């Protein structure tokens, strides 16, 4: 095709400048014909476009969307549309308020938004190459030329200085014969999509992290409440041991064991309180607030609400449109594919149409007169002949980058399926574990009540009471941890599904 361009160029080439105003009309017809021929050639060749058109990858992975193995828990995933505000499944107005505030104030999200604006601005810069560039200028110069040189516009043989007034318009436009500039704009559009999905990913991460920190905070507060309840029980046992010691029916060993149990349970409280403060500060940071700002609003525990029996998780066919990382990987692949076209376009000739019109005079009074006019118009052709392998190396680089982007897309999709499957399994397992631990707590509570009654009656020593009480505390803490893990698994499930886009 480059040989065709050079041949046609030779046929339509010529002098595009005009002579004096008195020239006949016939003098301009060949020039106009050449100009029209060049314009027609430009339009015809502009349909050519280097590179290959991007085709979104087709996901051929087939995975069971819903868990089908093992015992099924009461709350199950269901293939129904996900609500945009997926966190409302927890039925906690305070959590919803915190996520809304994080969406408005989070600094990571604002940083991602500025990156998106930068990408859009960069796209605007690249798109400007599709349009002509026009500039205006005006200059004045007091100069003196050499009398021995080649140029003396003043005609005084360098014997005196002169004034030079110059001004006009300059215009240039690269004829995108091969679609190289179009590929650059296509790559810039895809880069905007990369930045947009990066922001979506940050937003989803902020929402999920806010939910995780909040739910962990509630779990710590429930554990703290259980610990304090057990501390009260331990103190009651210590009082009972002291009373029995005073009555002569208990020993110092019983009292020492009861006192040790009180100290052991009480030692758990400071660490739990520290963890509570740490999570509140983490939520404050997500909301771009200073530490302890949310102390008064979050320090009071709230009761958990039961999760619904059906958890909407959407359809498998919607995954690629919902997960920001998959959308971003596809956009990166699009950038790489368009960049291959740009690299191919560098092998072809470039044609730039340029022109200028203006005035130049030695006297200000003559500036703007008919005799001071000047203009020039014509094309510029550049053909790469020898680049030392630079162009071919760049093309190989872009092709390798496209292969890497394709493999990264495949990896991203497989990782998404793995995360979803793991999250669904964890959500189901955490429910089953919690159900079992509820029964363990109930039985340990019965055992503790019986052990205390038998201890009062002198049928058993205090070691039996101590052992059962420790078992009760452990099972209660496990139950709270399991309930927290269940809610965290649900957050992880929605995060792996890409939220509710």
From TrEMBL:
Record's keyword annotation contains Lipoprotein: yes
A GO MF term: efflux transmembrane transporter activity
UniProt cross-references to Gene3D superfamilies, sorted A to Z: Outer membrane efflux proteins (OEP) (2.20.200.10)
Species name: Pseudomonas abietaniphila
Membrane topology: Lipid-anchor
SUPFAM superfamilies: Outer membrane efflux proteins (OEP) (SSF56954)
The entry's keywords: Cell outer membrane, Lipoprotein, Membrane, Palmitate, Transmembrane, Transmembrane beta strand
Entry-linked InterPro entries: MdtP/NodT-like (IPR010131), OMP_efflux (IPR003423)
Protein name as it appears in the record: Efflux transporter, outer membrane factor (OMF) lipoprotein, NodT family
The family this protein is said to belong to: Belongs to the outer membrane factor (OMF) (TC 1.B.17) family.
Main subcellular location: membrane
GO CC term (a single one): cell outer membrane
Keyword Oxidoreductase: no
Superkingdom assignment: Bacteria
UniProt subcellular location: Cell outer membrane
């Amino acid at each position: 095709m480059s040989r065709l361009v050079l041949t046609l160029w030779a046929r339509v080439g010529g002098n595009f400048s005009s002579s004096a105003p008195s020239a006949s009309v016939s003098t301009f017809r060949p020039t106009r014909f050449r100009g029209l021929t060049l314009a027609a050639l430009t339009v015809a060749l502009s349909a050519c476009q280097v590179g290959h058109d991007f085709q979104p990858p087709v996901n051929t992975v087939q995975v069971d969307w819903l868990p089908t193995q093992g015992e099924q828990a009461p709350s199950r995933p269901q293939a129904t549309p996900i609500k945009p505000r997926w966190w409302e499944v927890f039925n906690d107005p305070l959590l919803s308020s915190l996520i809304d505030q994080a969406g408005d104030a989070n600094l990571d999200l604002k940083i991602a938004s500025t990156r998106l604006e930068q990408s859009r601005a960069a796209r605007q810069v690249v798109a400007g190459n599709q349009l002509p560039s026009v500039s205006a200028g005006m200059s004045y110069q007091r100069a003196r030329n050499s009398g021995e040189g080649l140029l003396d516009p003043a005609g005084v043989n360098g014997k005196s200085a002169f004034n030079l007034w110059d001004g006009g318009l300059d215009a240039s436009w690269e004829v995108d014969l091969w679609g190289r500039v179009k590929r650059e704009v296509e790559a810039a559009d895809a880069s905007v999509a990369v930045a947009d999905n990066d922001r979506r990913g940050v937003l989803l991460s902020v929402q999920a992290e806010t939910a995780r920190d909040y739910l962990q905070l509630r779990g710590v507060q429930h554990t703290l409440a259980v610990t304090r309840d057990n501390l009260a029980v331990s103190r009651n046992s210590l009082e009972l041991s002291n009373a029995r010691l005073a009555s002569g029916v208990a020993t110092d060993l019983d009292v020492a064991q009861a006192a040790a149990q009180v100290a052991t349970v009480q030692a758990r409280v400071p660490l739990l309180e520290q963890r509570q403060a740490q999570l509140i500060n983490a939520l404050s940071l997500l909301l771009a607030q200073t530490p302890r700002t949310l102390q008064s609003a979050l320090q009071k525990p709230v009761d958990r609400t039961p999760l619904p029996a059906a958890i909407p998780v959407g359809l498998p066919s919607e995954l690629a449109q919902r997960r920001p990382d998959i959308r971003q990987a596809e956009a990166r692949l699009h950038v790489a594919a368009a960049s291959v076209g740009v690299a191919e376009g560098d092998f072809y000739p470039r044609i730039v149409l340029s022109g200028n019109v203006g005035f130049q005079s030695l006297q200000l009074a003559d500036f703007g007169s008919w005799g001071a006019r000047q203009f020039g118009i014509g094309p510029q052709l550049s053909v790469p002949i020898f680049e030392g392998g630079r162009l071919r190396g760049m093309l190989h680089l872009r092709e390798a980058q496209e292969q890497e982007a394709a493999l990264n897309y495949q990896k991203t999709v497989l990782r998404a399926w793995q995360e979803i499957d793991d999250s669904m399994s964890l959500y189901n397992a955490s429910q089953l574990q919690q159900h079992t631990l509820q029964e363990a707590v109930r039985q340990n509570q019965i055992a503790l009540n019986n052990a205390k009654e038998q201890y009062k009656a002198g049928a058993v020593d205090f070691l039996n009471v101590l052992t059962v009480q420790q078992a009760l505390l452990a099972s209660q803490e496990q139950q709270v941890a399991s309930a927290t893990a269940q809610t965290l698994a649900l957050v992880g499930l929605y995060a792996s599904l890409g939220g509710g886009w």
